[in-house]
C-alpha cells in the first residue's frame, strides 16, 4: 500500500557571485534549514538554482556544502537562467556526487524519471535546453506505471488563456493530462496553486523576494493516500534591514 509522503519544494533561488550573492546564499541556507526542520522526505528544486551560468567555483562549492547538510532524496532540474544549452552551462559543470548520492539532476532533454522505492514515488522532469517558444516543459510526460506517487517537475509559465508570444508555456490541459499527483513548478516568483483534474500544480514562492519586508518562501507538500496533494507556503526568516546589519558591525 502506498505511504504518505512529505515534500519540500523550492525554485528560483538565483544564486550569484560576489558580495551581491551573499544575501541569496543566506536565504538558501534558510531553505536547507527548513528542509531539515520540517523533516521533509523529498526535496525538489524546480529550476534556476543559479541566476546565470557564469558561476564562480566558490558558489558551486557552497551549493555542495549546503546540499550535503540534508540526507533526503533531492531532485534538481534546470531553469531558464541556468539552462543546459548555454555555452557556459553551470549545470554541466556540476558534480552533485560531491554533495552526496542523494542528489539527482534530471538532465535528459527529452525528459526522464527517477524512482524512489522507499518513498513509493517517482519524479519526472525535462532538462531545459533553451528558454524559447519551442520549449515545451510538459512535453513527453510519462503515464503512471505503478502504484506509486506520480510527481512531475517543470520550469515555465503557466497560462490559462490563449497565449502565443511567450516562451516555455504550461497549459491547464497539459497539467490535467499529466496525471501527476503533484507538479512542482518553477519560474514565477510567487506562491500560486492550480488544480486541474487530479493534479495539484504549484509555484512555491522564492526564498529571497524582491521586497525585503516580505518573508522568503518554500512550499511543503503532503501526499496522503486517498486524499492526494495538499500544499502550503512555509515562511523563512526575514532578511535583516541593512541599517541593523551596519549597527551590529560597528
How would you briefly describe this protein structure?
With 250 residues, the chain is of the alpha/beta class. Helix content is 18%, strand content 29%.
Descriptive overview:
Helices cover about 20% and strands about 30% of the residues. It is α/β, with parallel strands linked by helices and about 250 residues long. It has a single domain, classed as Metallo-dependent phosphatases (Purple Acid Phosphatase, chain A, domain 2). The radius of gyration is 17 Å and the shape is globular.
How are the elements arranged and paired?
Elements: E1 5-10, H1 22-37, E2 42-46, H2 57-67, E3 74-77, H3 90-93, E4 103-105, E5 112-116, E6 121-125, E7 149-155, E8 157-158, E9 169-170, H4 172-178, E10 182-186, E11 191-196, E12 199-204, E13 217-224, E14 228-235, H5 242-249
Parallel strand pairs: 1-2, 2-3, 3-4, 6-7, 7-10, 8-9, 10-12
Antiparallel strand pairs: 1-13, 5-6, 11-12, 13-14
CA-CA gap between termini: 59 Å
Poorly predicted residue ranges: 242-250
Elements, N to C (H/E): EHEHEHEEEEEEHEEEEEH
Q: So, CATH architecture?
A: 4-Layer Sandwich
Mean pLDDT score, rounded? 93
Q: Helix- and strand-based class? A: alpha/beta
What keyword list fits this structure?
single chain; 250 residues; alpha/beta; Purple Acid Phosphatase, chain A, domain 2; 6-stranded mixed beta sheet; disordered C terminus
